[in-house]
Amino acid sequence: MSEKVLEVKNLKVEFNTDRGVATAVNGVNFDVYKGKTIGIVGESGSGKSVSALSIMRLIPNPPGRISGGEILFNGENLLNIPMEDMRRIRGNKIAMIFQEPMTSLNPVFTVGNQIEEVLELHQSHLSPKDRREKAVDMLRLVGIPSPEKRVTEYPHQMSGGMRQRVMIAMALSCEPDILIADEPTTALDVTIQAQILELMNKLQKELGMGIIMITHDLGVVAETCDDVAVMYCGQIVEHADVKTLFNHPQHPYTKGLIESIPSFDSTSGKSKEKLATIEGMVPSLFDLPEGCNFQDRCAYATEECRSKEPSLRPIASEHEVSCFNPLK
Questions:
Q1: Which pLDDT value is given to residue 271?
Q2: Closest CA to 48 of 256, 215, 190, 284
């Protein structure tokens, strides 16, 4: 078993709104191990990104607040340390690749300046010359050609794939223990997506970091992850290793997500059957049903599902599900 570097325990995050308090994350638990990738998947609004921002303590307050739980990094609760100490950890020991590389980089500074700023903040012992050399090395590491030239360019002079590589270079410049990748391939075409995922796998093997992969794309999960946590309405409804989850999904929501992946006949190149969908809509956080949050979209719902809220429980070794009627 790999070394555990992060434990998220019973995390709860709330937002104050004009309609009242919305609980965006409600009792989430997961662990991150050195050299391993955990995928957090679910539809938009399920609480994936809020969970990641909570680890970095980047939830805007107000209107949001982390109202419960623990986030233990190497045994230390990040929610209790002074913000000054958190800033030293953020970007240094725990780094994050944000969504949308088009907007995550500052358009008025060169990409070299932006990588060097990270190094100046967290590795102040480096001279300006050393910082520039390391910026060039990082661009080379992420596969950007002619890094000595590219380091002087501005974001608008680069393609979307190049900008995403720059974001990865910035995140990895301090060799973090944990990398949080929030939809790292959303804005990229399929070919560039494959290159970015291959790059992240390669760098993980070289650096031994733990990765939290946040995505709604199960294809990305199958390609990159060791374990998977499926989120719905701010809660984890199923957690298992990636092979078990794809081969033996136990929650109806997980099964629905997997069945909605397009499938093609390898001989004819045509779809064998109509694309499956999950009927209905995700309920509003202000109007959650009594009992299971998935009951209105579930073909297996019973009276027990409508009156009692299920909790995440083990059904096999390293496999947990939040359902009264797990699939057989």
A1: 54
A2: 215
